[in-house]
Design brief:
Blueprint: E1 5-9, H1 13-25, E2 29-33, H2 36-46, E3 50-54, H3 62-72, E4 77-82, H4 87-95, E5 100-103, H5 108-175, E6 186-191, E7 196-199, H6 201-207, H7 230-237, E8 242-248, E9 254-265, E10 271-280, H8 282-304, E11 308-312, E12 318-321, H9 323-328, H10 337-340, H11 352-359, E13 363-370, E14 376-387, E15 393-402, H12 404-446, H13 450-478, E16 486-489, H14 490-499, H15 502-507, E17 511-515, E18 522-525, H16 527-545, E19 555-562, E20 566-573, H17 580-585, H18 602-612, E21 616-622, E22 626-634, H19 639-643
Parallel strand pairs: 1-2, 1-3, 3-4, 4-5, 17-19
Antiparallel strand pairs: 6-7, 6-10, 8-9, 9-10, 11-12, 11-15, 13-14, 14-15, 16-18, 19-20, 20-22, 21-22
Length: 649
């Protein structure tokens, strides 16, 4: 910061101009401001050493500016400019740490003297700050030097103590007494000629009488000094060594050990002896082999378990999975379970893993998952806590058993009863609607009200259609039947089927377009079952559009095209759409995205019918964007397919 930089603040432009010229003649870099607010905004950019300000100014006077400057920039000196009538204000400004005040009209000599005193004050403050900083640096340097000397002194004391301890240890080994004979370690002392000069009782017991032998003789893979043993390396480098070695026992057996060596200096600091402390690793190796074998057994058990197993952290990320999980699902270690396994964007409702983390108990639930090959499976899921040595739950293991076949058998025996029970309220509602429609019809006939008769007929027609659909669903589900295929015109069959939904689409104010070319050729189908299956998809499209946004234009597009030995039928809507989890479960028995308005049978039966014809369905859907069902039907149905009956599950 330049000490000659000055900010002149005055609301009169003439004073700023002429006084500014005077200040520049005195050698100052001058910036100006028309009031206190402008001056405060300019200070960060200008960084002045001195502010020369008038006392009386509009918006913010000189006293307010002085207070603000001293609050935020105490190092800046402020000189006040005042008229003869403002002497009291000028004196008051000194209480707020103003450097000086000058009365108007301003005398150049007085101005120069005042600025000179302020400059001396600034220079004195700078020198004092520099001296303080130098003094602090000097104190820091001296302090660090003292600390370093204390560290060196402490290190010397540690080295001396360690040397004495090692010498004492060597003496204990040589005399066969003391701590080293009590340690469960192999202890020996070696001289600089690489000779064993002393050994404790345990080493003699395991290796025999080795005193007087060469240091390298006790190793199984070292026969000459050329192949340096840890003792020789210690003499060569002056540093202790640590390595895994193999000793030769007195019966010729190999003893795995971990060797630790330490130099023992004499009074002159020269290495005189080396202390060798070796830990027998035989038992540890046996325990390690047993541990590896146990780990291998548990890993095989983990991988061969007839279920899917995953280990999850508190944030639901997958830490480990078994082989069966890897085969049927993308592994995704580190990814959330609900994303990689359940294809969800958030944790499942009533998640057993979450509940186990909360209460430490095992929990179970049942769900449907989709493998990476697109196969849907019913899963019975169990959770179990994994605790550490302190009993804290660190992870949770989730075990999922495939119960798809069990569910199919159970469905064959019991699902019809559950279905009829769940439909009872629906049937009751339809009967009530029929009763109401008949009443309105009778009332219209009695009063000869044609409009009322027409409305009643429409209600009855709608309810009868619903009853018919429900009865057909029940029959298809409850009774195994073989499809009876016939060769029909594909274009006529698909157009007639698409026409069945026109009234419902019109009533729901849904735009309905059909693009089925005439030259599609022939196709083998069971007309009644396939028509019902396609109508299910069309009605679902209308339902997806109807309850959504009234101000939005909804539409359903039906199209077909010739693919040679196959015919492709596409049914698209721009309705509610589905998330991934719903999309993967729509062909599951009793699953419905319509709540109480759906039975969960229609699409299940439709899928079974199309598969029975040798066809397949592809579903593309996005929430609030719509859904497209693409149905691929072969022109010819294989005989074995036609003989299959529609399964119950």
């Amino acid at each position: 910061m330049s000490t000659k930089k000055l900010l002149l603040v005055d609301d009169e432009e003439g004073i700023r101009r002429f006084l500014g010229l005077t200040l520049m003649d005195l050698g100052y870099e001058v910036e100006t401001a028309e009031n206190g607010e402008s001056a405060l905004k300019a200070i960060p950019e200008i960084s002045p050493s001195i502010i020369l300000t008038d006392i009386k100014m509009p918006r913010m006077d000189g006293i307010e500016l002085l207070k603000a400057v001293k609050a935020d920039y105490p190092h800046i000196e402020v000189i006040m400019l005042t008229g003869h009538g403002d002497i009291d204000l000028a004196i008051e400004s000194l209480k707020f740490d103003a450097a000086d005040f000058i009365t108007k009209p301003i005398d150049d000599e007085v101005l120069e003297i005042s600025l000179g005193r302020v400059m001396e004050k600034i220079e004195l403050k700078d020198k004092l700050r520099e001296h303080t900083e130098n003094l602090e640096r000097l104190v820091e340097e001296k302090t660090q030097r003292i600390i370093e000397l204390e560290r060196q002194n402490a290190a010397c004391q540690v080295v001396e103590g360690l040397s004495e301890a090692l010498s004492s240890a060597a003496h204990e080994v040589e005399t066969g007494s003391g701590l080293f004979n009590e340690l469960p370690c192999l202890v020996s002392i070696h001289n600089r000629y690489l000779e064993i000069v002393a050994a404790n009782e345990l080493l003699k017991e395991r290796l025999g009488d080795v005193v007087g032998k060469n240091s390298f003789d006790i190793y199984s893979d070292r026969e000459t000094p050329g192949n340096a043993c840890p003792v020789q390396l210690t003499f060569d480098t002056g540093k202790g060594q640590r390595s895994k070695e193999t000793f030769i026992g007195k019966e010729g057996e190999e003893i795995p050990v971990t060797v630790y060596t330490a130099p023992i200096p004499n009074k002159n600091g020269e290495i005189e002896l080396v202390l060798d402390i070796s830990v027998d690793m035989t038992e540890l190796k046996r325990l390690n082999d047993e541990l590896l074998e146990t780990q291998y057994k548990f890993q095989r058990l983990f991988d061969e378990a007839p279920c899917y197993i995953s280990v999850q952290n508190r944030d639901f990320t997958i830490a480990e999975v078994n082989r069966r999980f890897k085969e049927d699902f993308a592994e995704h270690l580190g990814a959330p379970c609900y994303a990689s396994y359940k294809h969800r964007e958030r944790p499942c409702d009533e998640c057993p893993v979450q509940r186990t983390f909360q209460d430490g108990e095992s929990h179970q639930t049942e769900t449907v998952v989709t493998t990476q090959n697109g196969e849907q499976k019913n899963m019975l899921v169990w959770s179990a806590p994994l605790r550490n040595a302190y009993g804290e739950i660190k992870q949770v293991m989730e075990m999922s058993t495939d119960i798809t076949e069990i569910r199919r058998l159970q469905d064959h025996l019991t699902s019809l009863g559950f279905m009829l029970g769940s439909m009872s309220h629906g049937v009751k509602g339809m009967l009530t609607a029929l009763d109401g429609g008949i009443y309105r019809l009778e009332s219209g006939l009695r009063k000869n009200d044609q409009e009322r008769v027409t409305e009643a007929a429409a209600v009855l027609k709608n309810v009868v259609g619903r009853v018919k659909k429900m009865v057909l669903d029940i029959l298809y589900y409850a009774k195994s039947r073989e499809i009876e295929v016939e060769t029909v015109s594909a274009a006529h069959f698909l157009r007639d089927t698409a026409a069945l939904i026109v009234p419902k689409a019109a009533a729901a104010n849904v735009q309905y377009s059909v693009d089925i070319p005439e030259d599609l050729g022939n196709i083998d189908v069971d007309s009644s079952s396939m028509s019902a299956a396609i109508v299910n998809f069309l009605e679902n499209g209308v339902d997806a559009c109807s309850p959504n946004q009234p101000d939005r234009k909804y539409k359903i597009d039906v199209s077909a095209r010739d693919l040679g030995d196959k015919i492709e039928l596409a049914i698209s809507d721009n309705g509610a759409g589905m998330d991934r989890e719903t999309k993967e479960k729509i062909f599951t028995l009793f699953f419905s995205s319509k709540g109480k308005r759906g039975t969960g049978i229609g699409l299940f039966i439709s899928n079974q019918t199309i598969e029975q014809h040798g066809g397949r369905i592809q579903v593309e859907s996005e929430p609030q964007q719509g859904t497209t069902f693409t149905i691929m039907l072969p022109r010819k149905v294989e005989k074995k397919k036609a003989q299959q009956s529609i399964p119950c599950s």
